[in-house]
Specification:
Pfam families: Dynamin_M (PF01031), Dynamin_N (PF00350), GED (PF02212). It catalyses: GTP + H2O = GDP + phosphate + H(+). Belongs to the TRAFAC class dynamin-like GTPase superfamily. Dynamin/Fzo/YdjA family. This protein is an alpha/beta fold.
Length: 609
């Protein structure tokens, strides 16, 4: 069972070392889940004397006004033999055997956090005391409740102290040790009042009555100690502390404990309660109760720790890795992020992710529809055919077939294919740009570095622009090639006038009759449709080769070349992470370290059973 209190001691120390003070923050807190005993009382309640009686040593600062201005986590460790000593967590390599020096260090460490003012702080001081005269126990000494601010203190100090005390004792895992002086009306007790507010049933409140020996003659505290005047779930414990005269004379604490026992045993009013009175009994009761509470909380604590570790790891993964400090590390980080983006981009094109299928839509729907809308037959009206053939013949009419007229008519139709070809190039370009934006948003590392995201996005778009220009040049060349050289075999297979019963010696006027021109238009339309079908197949090949394939192969090549020339400062500008994210990651890493340590400690205790 002693291992359980030691376990909580270790976890509390780890919490403080790693910044978990149980105060409100955006981070999960382990501190609030740990069972603890908080000592609450007014300034003149004898709170410090109770703690010193339990420890058996003078070690707490004394004086007028608010002396305890930071929570003091007091961890008592029972040792079988050897000289008693104390250790502060902030001075781990130093052992204090002089408890007057402990008192001074508490004051000095308080001033280091709050300055030499009379303000308070919620950051705890951790003090461990090792002695054969103590029980294994952990107590948190909180600032004494007060009703009036003194000179040098904020006007809000009264409320500030109450808020701090409340923040500790309102937690369901906190055991309240409420210190009240017997020589004052219990109804006015600051400790009982605030304990009743947060624990109305008294299920986790221990009442301690001090200054019993200073009550007015003829009065006693029997009704309170027997639970008749104010009932709590646990029996009240009365203590008799050293008087101020004893403190001034430095009366030995062990002797004071003996006198306390004798007082209760020999007092007619309290002798029947003597077996459960005194600071020694109080220490044992609290130690046993704390062990019981810790044991009952272990399963829930394990579950909470395991769940929180998963959540912290998830958020850290989402925030990404911290930035390297050296130029090589920064360059490596930048390259890895760019490769992740490039891989996402390729997965869209390859069908692993959605988006690449839209490119096929351009080839299968947009391009054919655009070609169909050209309506070549409208270009080949009788008037147009007659006009173009006549213009092509010039001053010397054609003899057999209007070859120049054919060429001009075909070129006139094929040139109009350039528009749909360019539109197909632009359509694929727009889809590739959209995929770049998707890949940017789907690369979590780029969300971490806004400047790098912008630079990578700009570099990718610039590459796509270069590829579009090359694709447009190559695709339009396909159209121009068809215009520049006609397929002769097509025309050789066409029936000639003589074969159709015509007379090749017809007059020039007859050769321009409507039937003849209509046949010319039909031949041209057949050729143009054949060429259009060829281009419908070859244009997608050109676009894929010049844009899609090239984007997959070398989207960021130029950016990588420029990246290798950058110095450390320039790389740092690319990796300009939000300072809030940097701080959040550092805080999460500390908190994860705390929870992993807690998991290890709890598992060690669980396996040792």
């Amino acid at each position: 069972m002693e291992n359980l209190i030691s376990l909580v001691n270790k976890l509390q120390r780890a919490c403080t070392a790693l910044g978990d003070h149980g105060d409100e923050s955006a981070l999960p807190t382990l501190w609030d889940s740990l069972p603890a005993i908080a000592v609450v009382g007014g300034q003149s309640s004898g709170k410090s004397s109770v703690l010193e009686s339990i420890v058996g040593k003078d070690f707490l600062p004394r004086g007028a006004g608010i002396v305890t201005r930071r929570p003091l986590v007091l961890q008592l460790h029972r040792i079988n033999e050897g000289k008693e000593y104390a250790e502060f967590m902030h001075l781990q390599k130093r052992r204090f055997t002089d408890f007057a020096a402990v008192r001074q260090e508490i004051s000095d460490e308080t001033d280091r956090e709050t300055g030499r003012t009379k303000q308070i702080s919620s950051v705890p001081i951790h003090l461990s005391i090792y002695s054969p005269n103590v029980v294994n126990l952990t107590l948190i000494d909180l600032p004494g409740l007060t009703k009036v601010a003194i000179d040098g203190q904020s006007e809000t100090i009264v409320q500030d102290i109450e808020n701090m005390v409340r923040s500790f004792i309102e937690k369901p895992n906190c055991i309240i040790l409420a210190i009240s002086p017997a020589n004052q009306d219990l109804a006015t007790s600051d400790a009982i009042k605030i304990a009743r507010e947060v624990d109305p049933k008294g299920d986790r409140t221990f009442g301690v009555l001090t200054k019993i020996d200073l009550m007015d003659q003829g009065t006693n505290a029997v009704d309170i100690l027997e639970g008749k005047a104010y009932k709590l779930q646990y029996p009240w414990v009365g203590v008799v502390n050293r008087s101020q005269a004893d403190i001034n004379k430095s009366v030995d604490m062990i002797a004071a404990r003996r006198r306390e026992r004798e007082y209760f045993q020999n007092s007619p009013e309290y002798s029947h309660l003597a077996h459960r009175m005194g600071s020694e009994h109080l220490g044992k009761v609290l130690s046993k109760h704390l062990e019981t509470v810790i044991k009952s909380r272990i399963p829930g604590l394990q579950s909470l720790i395991n769940k929180t570790i998963i959540e912290l790891e998830g958020e850290l993964y989402h925030l990404g890795k911290p930035i390297a400090t050296d130029a090589g590390g920064k360059l490596y980080t930048t390259m890895e992020i760019c490769r992740a983006f490039d891989q996402n981009f390729k997965e869209h094109l390859d069908g692993v992710r959605a988006g690449g299928e839209k490119i096929y839509g351009v080839f299968d729907n947009q391009l054919p529809a655009a070609l169909k809308r050209l309506h070549f037959d409208k270009h080949l009206s009788i008037e147009n055919i007659r006009k173009l053939i006549t213009e092509a013949d010039g001053y010397q009419p054609h003899l057999i077939a209007p070859e120049q007229g054919y060429r001009r008519l075909i070129e006139y139709c094929l040139v109009s294919i350039r528009g749909p070809a360019e539109a197909a190039v632009d359509g694929v370009h727009a889809i590739l740009k959209g995929i770049v934006q998707k890949a940017l948003s789907e690369t979590p590392e780029l969300k971490q570095y806004p400047t790098l995201r912008v630079e990578v996005g700009n570099a990718a778009i610039e590459s796509l622009e270069r590829m579009r220009e090359e694709s447009k040049r190559a695709t339009l060349q396909l159209v121009d090639m068809e215009c520049g050289y006609l397929t002769v075999e097509f025309f050789r297979k066409l029936p000639q006038d003589g074969e159709k019963g015509g007379n090749p010696t017809h007059s020039l006027f007859d050769r321009y009759n409507e039937a003849y021109l209509r046949r010319v238009g039909s031949n041209v339309l057949q050729y143009v449709n054949m060429t259009c079908a060829n281009l419908r197949n070859s244009i997608p090949k050109s676009i894929v080769y010049c844009q899609v394939r090239e984007a997959k192969r070398s989207l960021l090549d130029y950016f990588f070349t420029e990246l290798g020339k950058k110095e450390s400062k320039q790389l740092s500008k690319l990796l300009d992470e939000d300072p809030a994210v940097v701080q959040r990651r550092a805080n999460l890493a500390k908190r994860l370290e705390l929870y992993r340590s807690a998991q290890h400690e709890i598992d060690a205790v669980a396996w040792s059973k």
